[in-house]
Design a protein that fits this description.
Blueprint lengths: L5 E4 L3 E5 L5 E6 L2 E4 L4 E4 L3 H18 L6 E4 L4 E5 L2 E2 L2 E8 L3 H6 L6 E11 L8 E2 L1 H6 L5 H23 L3 E15 L2 E7 L7 E5 L9 H4 L5 H11 L16
Antiparallel strand pairs: 1-2, 2-3, 3-7, 4-5, 6-7, 8-12, 9-10, 9-12, 10-11, 12-13, 12-14
Helix pairs in contact: 1-6
């Protein structure tokens, strides 16, 4: 393989220069991190599973008109994506109390929210990804009011679709984190969904037992991370063309 130019490396993915202008190659690593990288591990097969699950989700969102950066999966760990100017925000949609929301408000984990709540966080590990308001976002020019409205509307649409998709296979969508970027076309930019959607970025509980099938298994030292991610892929019907990622390593 020809040596490719690395554009960016994050905690779970690497971006390389794409084959055509306006494209990038997104590589999914096996690295697992939590608490702003204070906790780290390498979980063999995680990148393969997240690549396939994110492909599955992004493809279906494209199918209902939710534009995102995904173009196609290239191999076990790589996707071809559109190059976008990332907006420095994490957009979190919560349906059920969990994680930091339970801690901040002293609420019991698992309590259903009266309606879905969307929160914005400034994406900066050194600062601990602080919670911010729309006033902060516009004052510091991270996004304008129209872009905020677009992100809010898209996030609610994604939530409706994912809640139904996961619900159909016995999984409760507790919450999820997504990111957005600007896709430039000349002097005009559209805000589209970017990054990934996988058990790394969603809280997914078994609808019957409330067993956690997501990254909280790593955060809380519960074990069985790869097995749980594999179960999500199995229920979504994408294991039939997946390599073996638990027994015997990735083929």
């Amino acid at each position: 393989m020809n040596r490719r130019k690395k554009i960016y490396e994050g905690k779970a993915k690497i971006l390389y220069e794409g084959p055509e202008p306006g494209t990038l190659i997104q590589y999914f690593k096996d690295d697992a991190t939590a608490f702003n990288s204070q906790k780290k591990a390498v979980l063999e097969g995680k990148g393969v599973l997240n690549n396939r699950i994110s492909e599955f989700v992004m493809t279906r969102l494209n199918g209902i008109g939710v534009q995102n950066h995904f173009i196609k999966r290239m191999n076990l760990r790589e996707q071809l994506i559109r190059e976008v100017e990332m907006i420095p925000l994490e957009v979190v949609c919560r349906n059920i109390v969990a994680g930091s929301m339970a801690e901040r408000f002293g609420l019991p984990e698992g309590q259903a929210l009266p309606r879905s709540i969307i929160e914005f966080y400034f994406k900066d590990d050194k600062l601990g990804d602080p919670l911010v308001t729309e006033e902060h976002i516009t004052a510091f020019n991270w996004a304008n009011t129209q872009e905020i409205d677009d992100m809010l509307a898209t996030t609610l649409r994604v939530n409706d679709y994912l809640s139904g998709m996961f619900g159909a296979v016995g999984i409760t969508l507790v919450d999820f984190k997504i990111e957005y970027g600007r896709l430039w076309e000349g002097d005009f930019a559209r805000v589209i969904l970017a990054d990934e959607i996988s058990p790394d970025s969603c809280r997914l509980w078994d609808a019957t037992t409330n067993e956690k099938l997501d990254k909280d298994r790593f955060r809380r030292d519960m074990g069985g991370v790869i097995e749980s991610y594999t179960e999500v892929a199995r229920r979504l019907g994408i294991m039939k063309d997946m390599p073996r990622v638990i027994e015997g390593g990735v083929s």
